[in-house]
Design brief:
Elements: H1 3-36, H2 39-42, H3 57-64, E1 70-75, H4 83-93, E2 99-104, E3 125-134, E4 140-145, E5 163-165, E6 173-175, E7 178-180, E8 183-185, H5 187-198, E9 205-209, H6 218-224, E10 230-234, E11 244-250, H7 258-269, E12 273-278, H8 287-294, E13 298-300, E14 304-308, E15 322-323, E16 326-327, H9 334-338, E17 345-346, E18 351-353, E19 361-376, E20 388-400, E21 403-411, H10 420-432, E22 443-444, H11 454-485
Parallel strand pairs: 1-2, 9-10, 9-11, 11-12, 12-21
Antiparallel strand pairs: 1-3, 3-4, 5-8, 6-7, 8-22, 13-18, 14-19, 15-17, 16-19, 19-20, 20-21
Helix pairs in contact: 7-8
């Protein structure tokens, strides 16, 4: 090899080194610049359902109105991250300058969670803290979203609070004899709940009547309140608590006593609100309940229930006692109408306006059927030849001397697994003057997933990690040898 050849070789080598150095420097610079860009601009949610992204108008409004600084603690041991929860939380906090997020490894900080009333910590637990507001004990307001021990909805035991089931009565599917509701991700609702909770110190108080065989309303509390409305049990004694914003009566089996009747009458006469969901009772004729209703200009026929003729309003021709009523104009249906959803009536009892009542009372039918007929509880005999408008829900308003009383009445089974809970939510929003988060839809997890067998995963892993790098390296060696021989 002559001197000229050596000179050219060193010249080319030096040029290659300089170019390589420049390329490496550019790559490093680009990495630094890209890493400085907020993650919401560099990370894209490609899931069909927008699983990792908060997309509702309610969330945008909530975050736009947020004027207090909040800290979100994401508690999770290394290697136990739920990618859905973690990614969603990172995307969510990036939407507001008032929210910051800190990752806490409980292995490194074993006593951290004890400050927030958590006895047993599970990974992927989130704590939202407002250090500017305190509770009665002087501690910063906080809200815990439990990560659970399971992110699946096969069982309720240990289920993460970031996951749930569809509320849609028509969304179920069957496997054999078992009926299931689709799994959903409810992170957006949970964060809206947490933010509302830690940015307020006073919440509306709703009392649920007890002591008459009423059915449990826990499911409804969870669906409606999001911990913004405080639900309390009401056992009628000498008085009704002064902080009561509304009383709910849910499917009582036994009647009021005379003293309880007088207490509720006085409560309504003072311009307060009540919500009744009244079923057919085989235990009592509910005479005092009916007496209370008649004093406000309406009555319930407890001897019959409403059936439906029109196929357009039937859930199924086999079950004419389950129907979709026509809805009147009322704020109770704001969310239902906005989202083109349906209300269902189950074994509804006919409601009617009494022939005479105080002129200050206005009776507003808000749920009814135009093609209904009545059936008796004693048997299947009924007359379906003469159809009529039967009312299954009403809003009664009495206004005088700047005092307004509102009574909502729905009959049959109304608080069930359907969108009916949105009606009750809108009623509470109106009566309690509060914003709730039930309009935020949960994200369906029943999307199609790419399934790869373990053998296929190992094959592709070997190709990506071994075959491709080895091929590139071999090609580089061959090119180097060829150039060296020239």
């Amino acid at each position: 090899m002559n001197k000229k050849t050596n000179k050219n070789l060193f010249k080319n080598a030096g040029y290659s080194i300089v170019v390589t150095a420049v390329v490496v420097a550019v790559v490093i610079l680009l990495n630094v610049l890209v890493s400085a860009i907020p993650e919401q601009y560099t990370r894209f949610d490609l899931t069909k359902t927008g699983l990792y992204t908060a997309t509702s108008e309610e969330t945008a409004k909530c975050l736009a109105e947020l004027d207090q600084d909040l800290i979100v603690y994401y508690l999770c041991a290394a290697g136990e991250e739920d990618i859905t929860v973690k990614t969603f939380m990172e995307n969510y906090v990036a939407l507001s300058d008032h929210i910051s997020m800190k990752n806490i490894d409980p292995v490194v900080y074993p006593n951290f969670f004890a400050n927030y009333g958590i006895e047993t910590l599970t990974s992927n637990t989130v704590i939202v803290v407002n250090e500017n507001l305190t509770d009665d004990e002087g501690k910063p307001l906080y809200f815990v979203i439990n990560g659970g021990t399971s992110s699946t909805t096969d069982t309720t035991e240990g289920l993460s609070e970031f996951y749930g089931w569809s509320m849609d009565a028509n969304a179920y599917y069957t496997t054999g004899a078992m009926l299931y509701y689709p799994a959903t991700f409810v992170g957006e609702q949970q964060m809206a709940t947490a933010i509302n909770y830690v940015t307020n110190t006073v919440w509306p108080q709703v009392y649920v009547l007890s002591g008459h065989g009423e059915e449990d309303l826990t499911y409804l509390h969870d669906a409606i309140s999001n911990n913004i409305i405080q639900f309390n049990t009401l056992l009628l004694g000498d008085s009704i608590p002064e902080d009561c914003d509304m009383i709910i009566v849910h499917n009582p089996k036994f009647d009021l006593t005379d003293a309880e009747y007088e207490l509720l009458s006085q409560y309504l006469n003072q311009g307060n609100d009540m919500l009744f969901m009244m079923p057919h009772s085989q235990e009592s004729d509910l005479a005092n309940f009916n007496k209370l209703f008649e004093s406000y200009g309406f009555s319930i026929d407890n001897d019959h229930y409403i059936m439906e003729l029109s196929n357009a309003h039937l859930l199924s021709a086999q079950y004419p006692y389950i129907f979709v009523p026509t809805l009147g104009e009322d704020s109770a249906f704001a969310t239902i109408n906005k989202n083109n959803l349906y209300v269902y009536s189950y074994y509804a009892l006919p409601i009617s306006e009494t022939s005479s009542h105080r002129s200050s009372i206005t009776f507003n039918p808000i749920c009814f059927t135009n093609t209904g007929y009545l059936a008796t509880w004693e048997g299947d005999e009924y007359d379906n030849t003469s159809t009529s408008k039967y009312i299954s829900g009403a809003h009664i308003v009495e206004a005088y001397d700047e005092v307004e009383t509102n009574i909502y009445i729905f009959t049959g089974i109304f608080a069930d697994r359907s969108y009916n809970y949105m009606v009750l939510s809108d009623i509470l929003k109106e009566s309690c003057n509060v914003e709730l988060t039930v309009e935020i839809e949960s994200v369906d997890l029943a999307y199609d997933q790419l399934s790869i067998l373990e053998s296929e995963a190992n094959l592709w892993g070997s190709i990506v990690q071994i075959v491709i790098p080895a091929t590139v390296l071999l090609a580089g060696v061959i090119v180097f040898i060829i150039r060296r021989r020239k």
